[in-house]
Structure prediction request, 412 residues.
Amino acid sequence: MSPLETVVLAHPLTEPGGLGLPPLFLATVVVAISTTLVLRLPTGPPPATPEDVAGHGTTGRPSMGTGERVARTFAVAILLLVVIAGRLGQDSQLDNIAPSLAIGLAWPWLLVVALVGRGWWDRINPFDTLARGLQALGGQADPVGPSPLRGGRWWAVPAALAWTYYLGVYSQPLEPRVVGAVVAGYTILTLAGCLAVGRRRWLEAGELFTVLFGAIDGMRNRRSRLAPDRGTTVVIAVLAGGLTFATLRISTLWIRQLLELGVDPLAATTTMPGLVGVAALSVLGLQASERWAVRSGAPAGVVTGAVAVVVAGIGLAQAMVRERLLKAAVIVVARFSNPLGGDVDMFGTASLVPANELIGETPKVIVQLSLLVVAATLAGRAVRRRCPQAVRPALWAIGTYTAVGVLSVTAV
Prediction:
């Protein structure tokens, strides 16, 4: 068997996995189900909303109600809690709330809300809230209708690569001191960008989560504007490839193939080129799909927005690897009694410890595959509503990224 056939037909892809079925077969089934749902389920006209008419963006909304103020205060409180607990609390993943709250729980739930919510990030964005506060303290105001930042969303590409590196390659992503430093450092850099070039300009072009959630929101309505610049395509493609690699690198497929070649599959000299290579292939694939869609008469950005929805599904499936999301929820409940760790037990939950297995392998894989089916279906239906002429290239892109996501989580 040739080296290429060895990789394509590797045993981890063709042997029965957690569901007793080969990952290649599962990937085919998931893509077939989601494609059938996209093409068969009816799609009504999307409703118009004030945000859609005015245009999407963190910040163009001039005022906020009481509910939004409460939500923003809560988001900032969570952000500060992660930083304070991570830097000052017990240096233990089980005794400190920061790792489970930020990486295990908050990140996946942001993706959940991205799939089901509408304009929600604009209403809770803690970076926007903090930047508004700094501007008020300094007597600085954003100009009305500021011109886009030169370079567009290319400014968010380093953050996308760094985020996927942190989640998928860095050896100690859940150490409390590391989590606190990462969240604090990113917040400081974001606020510095807001003060340097303007809050709205930086958040819309350089802040990773605003770019990701904005791309997803842009697919919800015909009237909301898309993000057609190439920078957005690269950001979404890097996230898709990087999040997939984060799971792929701990899979049987990755480990077995590299061990057979005499290479350490977990060494930085292996994982870093792997991350960059997968991200680069993802960028090339998404750009090719975008060009195909444009040649079909679609506006730029449609396929990118669809893949952004798939990215949310991939991130959620990754969060369920080894039941990390469920275990993080238990730890967060336990640590609410004392977020910094120690002997205090304010609410009587400090003794809670997640079991080694909460739901079992088979239910976990079913949940992961269901999440990928839902994300792929939502992405395809959004394309049908927005731009029917882009359905074919979009379905190719959605199917490819979904299939790779299935392979990465079922070959673990």
User: Anything to note?
Assistant: The two ends are 24 Å apart (CA to CA).
